[in-house]
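Go through this pair.

…
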Amino acid sequence: MPFIAIIGAGSLGGAAAHAVARRDRVPLIRLIDPEVSVARGKALDIQQSSAIDGFRTRLDAAEAIEAAAGADVIVLADPAAGQQEHAGESGLSLVRRLVRSGTNAPIVCAGAGQRELMAHAVAELHVDRGRIVGSAPLALESALRALAGLALDGSGVEVALRVVGVPPRGAVVAWEEATAHGQMLRAQLPAHVIAALNARIPGLWPPGPFALGAAAAFVTEALAIGSRRRFTCFVAMDAGPARTAVAAMPVELARGSVRQILEPDLTRQERTLLENALEL
């Protein structure tokens, strides 16, 4: 049976599992954590909410990372026993074990602090750059859309914008192509309001576990079953002067991999800011 494996049953792992389950598009989610009793408890708690939320996705739990074998998508979240996301040397060790297990499943780094982990996985473990993405930039976009919606005295659901680069200090908003209610956002918000929104970005990073979990759910689902939507994700750049950089960029996702990295419509100033961010 196709399934999603989530490595880590911490706050982020639980939020991601619940978000994927509520969308009811995959048959099985497996929470994997050395603290297997915690993972089982969270899986059971989410499963018991199915009658309220109206989903049929099943959840189970496992202790060993080898239980991810055969997964359609593997999500790296956070361990139940700590407050940190899987990152650094311990996170790289997890990816190494996944690589050695022979899995070809795409990896979604759900946390906000896993950009360097992605870079090391590509450079040192030779993980295919098309098989590893980070979903946190999508959560940042959601927060900024909500703030833009408030500035318009409306809803962030009606706002479409892209945040690219390297959050928080190297984040660049493609205001040139941002829209709300079908109209250009620059025509609806004065320049000082847009400048104020830009200034809020560092305070929006890192997003909280529920926003990160929701973002991971959309990206995970797209990699598992395909999607026509475009998502902003951390990706390992494959062209240009910063081809070794990991940055937030709009992407098209196919089943199992990144189909295409897209380039947003940026002003000359925004492009300069993006290039500077990629050199950090």
Q: What stands out?
A: The mean pLDDT is 94. The chain has nine helices and 14 strands. The CA atoms of residues 18 and 46 lie 6 Å apart.
